[in-house]
Amino acid sequence: MAINLSLFNTPIPIDSISLDLENDQAAKIDILRLDQIHETISGNKWFKLKYNLLEAEKQDADSILSFGGAYSNHLHALAYAGKLFNIKTIGIVRGEKISNSTLNDCADWGMELHFISRAEYRNKTDNEFLTAVKKQFRNTFIIPEGGDNDLGQKGCTEILTKEMITDYDILCCSIGTGTTISGLAASFDKEVWGFAPFKNAYSLREKLTKTMPNLRYIDKYHFGGFGKIKAELEIFMTDFEKKHDIELDRVYTSKMFYGLQNEIAVDLKTAKKNILAVHTGGLQGNRSLS
Ligand SMILES: *Cc1c(COP(=O)(O)O)cnc(C)c1O
To answer: Is the pTM of this model over 0.85?
Structure first.
């Protein structure tokens, strides 16, 4: 294993777009294009993996193991990192065995896939379960689902540089585990809008708002729940791509931009503020989630 971090040291592009509101109004938004940092490991997942990979290397682990659903951007990124840096990877996948572009890529890049029932998967953070995993996969380095640990968060503190953020009043990012937004907020003390693409995640909401007093946790734009899509959202995505030449993913960023446009439209003073929205990537999932 030899981790070459310089592959990802390219500056992150920022694009400006104009979001149409009602009554011929518009809001200028800047977008931090994490979807552009690498052709395969796009988005926030690289930042969450970085220090985990370095730690696995330091511990001289024989493999890296992690968890995810069948469309997981995290497992996809880990599998590619494994190929790139010559580390064996193991993916524990939620639910019965299926085949899709995400998992086919993972397998092609050498990830060993194990499918476990949804009931079993729920134990993924329990000590007993993890002890059994460590016994089965000797000398493996375990990364929690979504790269949700301190090392993952540390990587996300490196996304924003000082020069990038001086001018912004509001920072927007979508929320899964909350690792990315927690890392971002470490260097941004103005308003942070977090868009959760699922509903009723009370304990996550509580955890995040406790550690980030400047967070507005917004979960109105879930469109039925995690991974659920409605025609209105499809239309928004297609329109957005046509107008701005920026592709959005179906799970996270489409719901965030839909929500952001709506939030500005209902509170027009915010249209005059300087807003930076983070495009967290995830476009690989669009191949199988159409
Ligand atoms: C994983 C992911 C997120 C969520 O990131 P967390 O750090 O888990 O909150 C957001 N957007 C995209 C595109 C993702 O793949």
So the answer is: yes
